[in-house]
Each structure stands twice: as C-alpha cells, then as structure tokens.
Amino acid sequence: MQFFSKMKNNYKDAKEGRSFSYVFTAVLGLGFFTTAITWAMFNIYVPRYLDNLLNFQGEKTVIGVIMVLDNIAAITLQPWLGNVSDNIWTKWGRRMPFIIIGIPIAAIFFGLLSTFQEMLILLLVAIGGFNIAMALYRAPVVALMPDLVPKAFRSRGNAVINLMGGVGALIGLFVISAVYKINPNLSFWIVSVIMLLCLVALILTIKESKKRVDVEVKEKVKLFEAIKEIFTSKDKSLLFILLAISSWFFAFNALETWFSTYAAYHLNMAEADASMLLGIYSLTFILAAIPAGLMAKKIDRRKIIIIGIIGLSIVLIPIVFFSLFPISALQEFITFLPFKWTWEIIIVGMMLFLGGIFWAMINVNSIVIVWEMAGTKKLGTLTGLYYFFVATAAILSPVIAGALWDLMGVKYLFLYSIVFLAIALVFMLFVKTTGKEGKEPSREVSG
C-alpha cells in the first residue's frame, strides 16, 4: 500500500511540475502512442495495397511518390501548427485543441485505408486525409511533454514517450497483425477505436495551465525569425543536429516503407509475417528506450547518438552482405518459435533486435537536444521544425529508395540506409551544444 500511496503522491507532484512520474509521463505519451500504432501499420500494409493495385514498369517509384505525397502536408503544416500552438491559449490549453480535433479525423481516415484497399482513388483519398489529420496534431502532441515535464527530466521523459511509441508500434506489428490475418478491415477499425480511447484519457487527465513556468508565454514567437536564427546563429549546433536528424530518418524511412515489400520479394514472406519480423525491432526499442534516456544523466547526448549511429550501421552490414551475396545454406528452413523461417530470416531478425537498441540511443536523445536549444517559448516551433526535417526525409527517401529499387534491385536497400547513417555521423561531429540532464528538483519518486 505504501508503494501505491507513494506513486499517487508522486503523480500529483508531477502534474504540478515538482517531480517526475513515469505514470504521468506515460499518460502524456498516449498521444504519441496513437501516431506510432497507426504509422507502423500504415507503412507495412499501404505499400502492399498500392503494389497490388499498380502493375507497370517503374511502379515502385510511383508507389514511393504516393507514399510521400501526404508528407507534403506534414512539411508545410507541422512547423506552422507548432508555432501557432506556442502562441495561443484556449480553455483547453494550447496543445490540446489540436489533439482533440486531429485524433478523431485521423481515426476515421485510418479505418478507411483498409476499407478502400481495392479501390485506388478512394484509397488515395484516405491516405491524404489520414496524413493531413496526423500533421494537424503531431507537433503539438510531442511538444506537450516538454511543456509539462521539468527541463531536468526531459531525457527520461522523452524516453517514456518513445517507449509509448514503441509499445504502439509493437501492438500494431504483432497483436493487430494477428487480427489482420483473420479480418484486415476489422484490424484497422480496432486501431481507430484505440485512438479515440487514448483521446478520452488525455482529455480527462491533462490540464494545461499558464501558471506552469515551463509553459509561460511572454511574447509571440515568429516562425520565420526562428528559422532565420537557425542559419545565422554563431553556434550552428541546432542546424547540424537537424541535418543529422534528417539524414538518419532518410535511412530509417526507406527501411520502414519498403521492408514489407523487401521481405516479400527477397525473403518470400507474407506481409503479416514481415510485420511481426519488423516488430522485433520495435520490441528492443521499447526495452532500450528508458535506459537510453537515463544514459543522458552520465554521458553527453552527442556521444550517445554517435554510438547509436555506429552501432546501427554495424548491425545492418550482415543484412547488406546476404542481400548482395546470397548463401544457399541460409535458405534452409528451420522452425523458430511458432514460425517456419529460413536461416536468413532469423539472422535479419537478430540484426533488427540489436538495431532497435541503437535506434533508441539515437531517437530518444535527439529531439531533447532540440528542446535544449528552444527554451520555453519556442518549444512548439522547434518541435514543428524538427518534424519538418523528419518529414523532408519521409518525402524524399521512399521515392529515392523506390527509384533505386527499379534501377538496381531490392538488394541495395540496406546499403542505402548505411550510406545515410554515415552522412548523419558526419553532421553529428559538428554538433557542439547538447547537454546532460541538469540538476533535478529535490523531490523525485520512481512511480
């Protein structure tokens, strides 16, 4: 009983900004959870829907273009909406209005993706509607955590947020994929209902307040002045971290978008089984998220990210080798848990298992560096600009990787990702300002 009483008191203190609570931060992460569970399924199944509907030379390039058209909305809307959410207040707060509007619209269009999987025009409408709705609330929902969690706790706070995202991806890739095998349409609508339940929980729990120091707005933030400052500032660390972020998302988005198709063509796997294989990556990301955040108490975030980039590149090398130089012995089947997989599939799964750990080191700590440079008044604006660079990768990378596929074949997919990880590493070498977690408030409990 004492443990739960302590957890309850710590939860109340965290809501007032006096402490850190894993439970309270997990509730904040429900919004990000909705984005992770939907994007995991979107990137696995929608390319396959399009692949089934299109049949002509160069179709992979076209699919890549279709998959990123929606991100044009993200690249234009997210910085602006993040800036707007910095500068407004309503009775619901400054971030929650975007979440309250965006999640229901996204939930409806997400359910329609499977409903329209055999109707190209309606499928494209659903893709566009879903992604515009997601762009509407993604920057505000991510900025909500640094608003309500003290600066000293943001690395572990972002670790919890990413853990929630990892859980969402894991559910989408493992649990919902099992439902998908039985009824694809039902699986998508189940996720839509989950999104609405998360929204209800947020509305009942989160109360934004101007009285909180971390969300006090004293003057308007001008978007274009904030962008200009990135390029004109004497310390270019913010520019280089944003370029590094874009580079490793070039690597990640190519794999995320094309993995199910790679698995179908190269590993002879069904899309639902490919979803479960990619879920291994999400599983280790979940396990590593909290430790990756806690590392920032002892180690400079720049060093953590550099270790993550190098480690992820190394674990992708065996997959590159087997893709370029097939080994017949690795094509033999073996029963692995409930699956009958080839040795090559098992090795890919092992590398993805390790890759999730290194991806957590990169992803958990990168946006915290951006927040460190944002200050209080520009949190939403720079969160939006963070997603601008992420969305740029999401727009360009699947198209470039698809074109590479059409020209040279699927075997170069993982090599492509390693090249962009190397570019990200170069940019990280020029980042100077990062910071470890600062001195914490006197009261902190683990609950």
Question: From N to C, what is the helix and strand string?
Answer: HHHHHHHHHHHHEEHHH
Q: Say how many strands there are.
A: 2
Second-tier CATH architecture: Up-down Bundle
Share in β-strands: under 5%
- General shape: globular
Oligomer class: single chain
Helix content: over 70%
CATH class group: Mainly Alpha
CATH topology (level 3) name: Growth Hormone, Chain: A
Write a structural description:
The chain is mostly helical and 447 residues long. The protein has a single domain, classed as MFS general substrate transporter like domains (Growth Hormone, Chain: A, Up-down Bundle). 76% of the residues lie in helices and 2% in strands. α4 packs antiparallel against α14. The longest helix has 32 residues, at 343-374. Mean pLDDT is 81; it is low at 213-218 and 439-447.
Structure at a glance:
The protein has 15 helices and 2 strands. With 447 residues, it is mostly helical. The protein has one domain: MFS general substrate transporter like domains (Growth Hormone, Chain: A).
Fold topology:
Elements: H1 2-15, H2 22-28, H3 30-53, H4 59-87, H5 96-115, H6 120-148, H7 154-182, H8 184-205, H9 223-232, H10 237-266, H11 271-294, H12 301-324, E1 333-336, E2 339-342, H13 343-374, H14 379-408, H15 413-428
Antiparallel strand pairs: 1-2
Helix pairs in contact: 1-2, 2-7, 3-4, 3-5, 3-6, 3-7, 3-8, 3-10, 3-11, 4-6, 4-14, 5-6, 5-8, 6-14, 7-8, 7-11, 7-13, 10-11, 10-13, 10-14, 10-15, 11-13, 12-13, 12-15, 13-14
